[in-house]
Amino acid sequence: KQEVTQIPAALSVPEGENLVLNCSFTDSAIYNLQWFRQDPGKGLTSLLLIQSSQREQTSGRLNASLDKSSGRSTLYIAASQPGDSATYLCAVRWETSGSRLTFGEGTQLTVNP
Amino acid sequence: NAGVTQTPKFRVLKTGQSMTLLCAQDMNHEYMYWYRQDPGMGLRLIHYSVGEGTTAKGEVPDGYNVSRLKKQNFLLGLESAAPSQTSVYFCASSRISGTENYGYTFGSGTRLTVV
Hints:
The complex is a heterodimer. By secondary structure, chain A is an all-beta fold.
């Protein structure tokens, strides 16, 4: 079964710390992987999209990596800020699933001032 | 701003009532989706559409119907609401052209409570 797992479910860090969020997937045959941010009571905002041929993508303080062979992706957040507090979800588009995405359950990040 | 708009944002229904959730996008995306989000279960796909006039079942389609009469709109219907359909519903759209893969854009959600 094609599944996406995010560990840990929750993470609390002090402001200024660099941190890594993990995403693992069970099938390496993917088109792309997307990281989203969700604030409480809000919709999902796309952060980074990594195509299957890419190893990483960067946007500001965010860097996402992809290792298809091991079924893993990481989201690195540099110099974390309280405004980074949110739930971060990764989602995979499998080669066999058309345009549909499979989501992980997310990591709830709290950055303490 | 361009994007995905969902209406209504909140709704309380009594068991057995019906309602329609509306999703509209102005990005000329071919693909549209309805997801539900529940604590501990993440986002699950209800139905989706790959173009005007076409719909398909997702992971949890039972109790829902959809229609895509216009490219920009995707409607989600509940014919006879049940408490198990209490959830937050998200609409999303995406554009895929040939071998190019583009990301998803999500609406802000509809919080539905069935009592």
